[in-house]
Amino acid sequence: MRYLTAGESHGPGLTVIIEGLPAGLPLTAEEINESLRLRQGGYGRGRRMQIEKDQVKITAGVRHGKTIGSPVSFFVENRDWKHWTDIMGIEPIDEDEAKDLRRVVTRPRPGHADLNGGIKYGHRDLRNVLERSSARETAARVAVGAVAKILLKHLGIELASHVVEIGGVKAEAQSISEVEKIREIADQSPVRCLDEEAAQKMMNLIDETKKNGNSIGGVVEVIATGMPPGVGSHVHYDRKLDAKIAGAVVSINAFKGVEFGIGFEAARRPGSEVHDEILWNEEQGYFRKTNRLGGFEGGMTTGMPIVVRGVMKPIPTLYKPLTSVDIETKEPFKASVERSDACAVPAASVVCEHVVAWELARALSEQFYSDQMDKMKEQIDEFRRYAREF
Ligand SMILES: Cc1cc2nc3c(=O)[nH]c(=O)nc-3n(C[C@H](O)[C@H](O)[C@H](O)COP(=O)(O)O)c2cc1C
Ligand SMILES: C=C(O[C@@H]1CC(C(=O)O)=C[C@@H](OP(=O)(O)O)[C@H]1O)C(=O)O
Known about the structure:
Elements: E1 2-6, E2 13-19, H1 29-40, H2 48-51, E3 56-60, E4 62-63, E5 66-67, E6 72-77, H3 95-101, H4 114-121, H5 127-133, H6 137-154, E7 158-166, E8 169-170, H7 179-188, H8 196-211, E9 218-225, H9 241-250, E10 255-260, E11 278-281, E12 285-288, E13 296-297, E14 300-301, E15 306-312, E16 324-325, E17 332-333, H10 345-367, H11 373-389
Bound molecules: flavin mononucleotide and ligand EPS.
Flavin mononucleotide (FMN) binds near residues 313 and 351.
């Protein structure tokens, strides 16, 4: 399975093509739109989210509510486009006219893609970079992940995400293990945090940060249950599933780190307090006494819940900006800024969940028969039985 996305943040919209989905997967726009709605929420976002109402228009690959094996495509409209039709126009225009219309950006923001993208593609108008480096693209990735989540659900695999830290305010570790419960609480919380007291502190901190013209990041956690053991492979670097997930998480805009299970804490503990003892019983087959390694050993799933955490840096666009250099004058400046999010960690937790879902679905489709949904399920169920008795 693979996918491509296209679309500029203030262009007409986002286009997605997904290739390799099994035929016979029930798929409706409503289910995908629910994921898009969750991504748009979250305390700390800027005014853009009040303009957009993200919804997919399914344009190919689905007939009477089910996939037919051909590429599935979506279009997500940018409602903001109507305010940008001149600046982001697609038809060629006269160069003199263009100067007035383009709202040329020559002042790169520290922490964004502006300067590097300008150098790489030779754009003296940095808008040509920021339009695509914008996290607007994560709407497309969530639509893709929503399809993956629907596929996984048919296979008995569920995911949820929540926020564990914002700007240094940490949520108390929770003992909730059911994914459904985590999802329920996170979806109700404005910051997608399971700890109510910490959630309030996070919101206060976001308010204060916004007032000071600053931004903050945080840590999100994704949990996936029901994956069979042995998915991925130890035999080659590019077949290790934990590595693929790590790459996918860090590919999300502003994500700078990833950990599984206890993660970096493993560096501080002896082996006896890191590795998970192996047990067996008739009902479950093999399982681990603890899950400190977060569901992976040797690049393969252990069958225990997958626990992935991602670190998001603070948003680069600051209302009280840092010093940068104008690429035309080479003079230092402190840019005046337009709208921006002050904190997008809650929204990003939804993105992270969907990105992980895609990697899990793709790994299953590579390892098992995946042309037909029913046969895929049969084969995976059979593999689960085999692994239990192994
Ligand atoms: C959901 C979400 C919303 C974001 N909103 C903004 C924003 O409003 N302003 C901004 O400057 N960056 C925002 N970012 C972060 C930038 O897109 C990101 O920092 C930029 O693409 C540069 O990539 P890098 O940080 O991965 O190096 C957001 C990221 C996510 C995931
Ligand atoms: C559009 C989205 O996020 C955008 C991500 C983003 C950035 O620089 O990454 C900058 C902002 O764009 P704008 O200047 O248009 O408000 C965010 O709103 C979205 O999440 O759908």
